[in-house]
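Practice problem 4.
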């Protein structure tokens, strides 16, 4: 066809062969797209188990984390704590993926994470501290931590032995609290404080058909949880087993300050567990309170009676109810008294414990005196008859 000097090709009518080719290509592609869409819909929301340790016979690392003084944060700055908690979860989940960890579960603000390699677990724990420190947090979070530190310090001064306090002041041994140091405090502390406990070993591995995920049990899990429980916010604690594994894996400790803390008693474990403190070099100026330990079990007995003397602490407060129950039940209170008091190096804790137990001891003595009087009355009546 010609027109205006332009030639047009004639319109070619599709043949049955062309239609068959198009149908043969489009139908399989459509089926494939539908299959991919169905698979994506089925997998949406399902957790990935690729990073989970699955062999109970192969050692792996277990990590527990927890926010320091979360109860006080919620009580004193509820709105800011809610926002901070969401940010905390986002940061930790980002790091879990970065270091090939497996998020087993979360309970409140506590994370339980498993790793196939000890190096990844240690890197995760250290990264938590640097990432949280570098994040932006509401000022109210730090204000709560500072106020809690002030209250604890004032209580310590009130309960401190006057002679010891005078000697410390005269010798200049008493250091300025870190939260009063306007220069160094911002260089080491900022926002949410998380304690981290790490352990390496063999544990029981179970697949949960309901959650479609793996869970872990045994001494490995219990030890990691106890290690985390004795730490302070901003502190990373590792057992000797995990630290030894780091050396075997060739983990670079060049940017890490390692402090050997020695064997420490952990609740529920028969033997003390040697612990190491791992601190990023950038945060080496952090000062931590003493580990939140229980008193190591002491034994006493009389006339074949043997009882275990254990004292529990939660958030640096003594569980006085358990203490009183123990004191009421014990038959050899004098031996227990000297044994337990001898185990306290801190004068403030000793005085607090002594005050509670003195009341219980007086009650026991009064009951014994009343029983003795009743016995004499009964004997006297029988004699007169």
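Answer key:
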């Amino acid at each position: 066809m010609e027109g205006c000097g332009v030639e047009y090709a004639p319109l070619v009518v599709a043949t049955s062969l062309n239609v068959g080719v198009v149908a043969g290509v489009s139908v399989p592609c459509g089926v494939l797209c539908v299959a991919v869409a169905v698979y994506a819909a089925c997998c949406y929301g399902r957790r990935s188990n690729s990073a989970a340790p699955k062999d109970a016979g192969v050692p792996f690392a277990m990590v527990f984390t927890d926010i320091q003084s979360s109860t006080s944060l919620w009580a004193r700055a509820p709105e800011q704590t809610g926002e901070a908690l969401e940010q905390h979860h986002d940061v930790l989940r980002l790091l879990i993926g970065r270091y090939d960890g497996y998020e087993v579960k979360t309970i409140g603000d506590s994370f339980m994470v498993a790793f196939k390699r000890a190096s990844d677990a240690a890197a995760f724990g250290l990264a938590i501290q640097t990432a949280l420190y570098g994040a932006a947090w509401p000022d109210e979070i730090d204000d709560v931590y500072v106020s809690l530190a002030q209250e604890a310090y004032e209580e310590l001064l009130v309960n401190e032995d006057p002679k010891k306090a005078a000697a410390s002041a005269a010798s200049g041994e008493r250091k300025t609290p870190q939260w009063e140091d306007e220069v160094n405090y911002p260089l080491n502390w900022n926002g949410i404080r998380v304690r981290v406990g790490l352990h390496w070993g063999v544990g029981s591995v179970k697949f949960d058909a309901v959650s479609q995920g793996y869970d872990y049990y045994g001494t490995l899990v219990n030890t990691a949880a106890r290690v985390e429980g004795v730490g302070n916010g901003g502190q990373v604690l590792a057992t000797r087993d995990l630290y030894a594994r780091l050396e075997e894996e060739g983990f670079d400790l060049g940017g890490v300050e390692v402090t050997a803390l020695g064997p420490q008693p952990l609740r529920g474990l028969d033997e003390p567990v040697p612990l190491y403190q791992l601190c990023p070099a950038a945060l080496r100026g952090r000062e931590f309170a003493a580990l939140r330990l229980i008193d190591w079990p002491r034994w006493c007995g009389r006339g074949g009676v043997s009882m275990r003397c254990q004292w529990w602490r939660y958030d640096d407060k003594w569980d006085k109810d358990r203490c009183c129950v123990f004191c009421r039940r014990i038959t050899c209170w004098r031996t227990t008294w000297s044994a337990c008091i001898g185990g306290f190096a801190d004068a403030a804790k000793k005085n607090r414990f002594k005050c509670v137990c003195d009341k219980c001891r007086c009650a026991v003595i009064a009951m014994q005196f009343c029983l003795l009087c009743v016995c004499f009355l009964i004997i006297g009546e029988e004699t007169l008859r």
